[in-house]
Design goal:
about 250 residues; alpha/beta; TIM Barrel; nine-stranded parallel β-sheet; 9 strands; about 45% helix
Length: about 250
């Protein structure tokens, strides 16, 4: 009887693991279908939008399942959590950093990430440039634009971002690839649309200036609740966590 119980527990655990794997695979497929539909509604080719799977608080095995299901870019919000997963998983695909980055973590970010989405002040840029130079790397970054003026949001104001781009232009180890923003939280995805439109307009304005060394190829905007609207408004990178991995554990 004891042996049967152990077998039952083992079988149940195996079933749970398989179920979770198929859930992640199904979620990923669903998100891709929604991205494709949104792109086609906007007259865009779906391949111009890349899905960034955000694995904040997600365990390494579930992240591996997402990669096996076809996730091609992974993203983290925190340096220490990212370092553990990158060293554990060694999956050979790009990692992006999307959280708030402090200057004292710049050396880790340079070593770990292919693209940093959240560059929000020039002092940080200078530190990233110094560290990248020491590590023999040109670090690709996005400038985070604060378009809502919320006190809880990081980012460069709309009026200052052009000046910041011009200052970065002379730095040899930083390559600006575009812009990122976080609209105010809302249950209605349409409430995010004006902020996505504003970021696209800001991108276009910067692109017209043709600042040396500054490209505006990327727009990182849209998360699980509003990514379809973001795609309709020109997003090239959408940051999706909950819609792939499910709700995060509640904070206590």
């Amino acid at each position: 009887m004891h042996f049967d119980l152990l077998e039952l527990i083992s079988a149940s655990s195996a079933f749970s693991a398989v179920r979770n794997m198929f859930t992640i695979a199904a979620n990923l497929a669903s998100v891709r279908e929604r991205i494709e539909a949104a792109a086609r509604r906007a007259g865009r080719e779906p391949h111009t939008v890349r899905l960034v799977a955000v694995c904040k608080t997600v365990g390494p095995e579930r992240v591996r399942e997402a990669v096996e299901a076809g996730a091609q870019i992974l993203a983290e919000n925190y340096i220490q959590e990212a370092q553990r997963k990158i060293e554990t998983l060694r999956v050979g695909i790009p990692w992006h950093f999307i959280g708030h980055l402090q200057k004292n973590k710049a050396k880790y970010a340079i070593r770990l990430f292919d693209l940093i989405h959240s560059v929000d002040n020039f002092a940080l840029v200078e530190e990233l440039n110094r560290t990248a130079q020491k590590q023999g790397k040109v670090q690709e970054v996005l400038l985070q634009a604060d378009l809502s003026g919320e006190e809880t949001k990081f980012g460069v104001s709309e009026g200052e971002i052009i000046q910041m781009a011009e200052k970065i232009s002379g730095l040899k180890n930083i390559s600006v690839k575009g812009l990122m923003t976080l609209p105010p939280f809302s249950d209605d995805p349409e409430e995010s649309r004006p902020y996505f439109q504003k970021l696209r307009s800001l991108r276009d304005l910067l692109a017209k200036r043709k600042i040396p060394g500054i490209s505006m190829d990327e727009l990182s905007m849209g998360m699980s609740g509003d990514f379809e609207v973001a795609v309709e408004e020109g997003a090239t990178l959408v940051r999706i966590g909950t819609a792939i991995f499910g709700p995060r554990p509640a904070k206590h």
